[in-house]
Amino acid sequence: MSKNCSIIISTTQPDVSDEPLTETAWGVMKQNGGITCISYEMPGSDGRDAISSRLLIKDGRLEVRRSGGINGTLHFISGKSCTSQIDLGGMCLLVRNETESLKLIETDGGILIHVRYRSYLNDEFISVCEMEIIVRI
Predict the structure, then answer these.
(1) Dist CA 56 CA 30 (whole Å)
(2) 91 and 71 Cβ atoms separated by less than 8 Å
(3) Geometric angle at alpha carbon 121, from 117 and 126, rounded to 5°
(4) Binning pLDDT at 50, 70 and 90, where does residue 48 land?
(5) What is the pTM for the complete model shown?
(6) Main-chain dihedrals φ then ψ at residue 109, nearest 5 degrees
(7) Residue 93 contacts residue 74 (beta carbons within 8 Å)
(8) What is the pLDDT of residue 46?
(9) String of b and e for 83-108 (b: at least 16 CB within 10 Å)?
(10) Whole-angstrom distance, CA of residue 71 vs CA of residue 58
(11) Residue 84 and residue 73 in contact, taking contact as beta carbons nearer than 8 Å
(12) Cα–Cα distance measured from residue 60 to residue 45, given in angstroms and rounded to the nearest whole number
């Protein structure tokens, strides 16, 4: 069953700045057999190419997939390190996330996701990051 939803994604790097980077969008949430999929679109940074995004929640794991001006998938699994290749339209980056904690809280009104992770770019440490995703139906 599909439900319209609002999505707010806030990302901070506490060791760099307390100011969050926040994205807000409208999307569609589907749940089936223990799998939750949330799809939405964001305008590209140049205002032209939209970025299609999908959040997939399954077995206590979070997958964030983007396609358009940015192409790639990030995986967050509590206590695990996951490496992904991100294509930025001709420039490829190797991104590794070491997920320190992942909290998924589902209610009748939506989903709250909180992830704390260490981010690496081409195997060089970048920052400790925190991401909060609020999905309201």
Answers:
(1) 10
(2) no
(3) 55
(4) low
(5) 0.89
(6) -95, -5
(7) no
(8) 62
(9) ebebeeeeeeeebbbbbeebebeeee
(10) 21
(11) yes
(12) 31
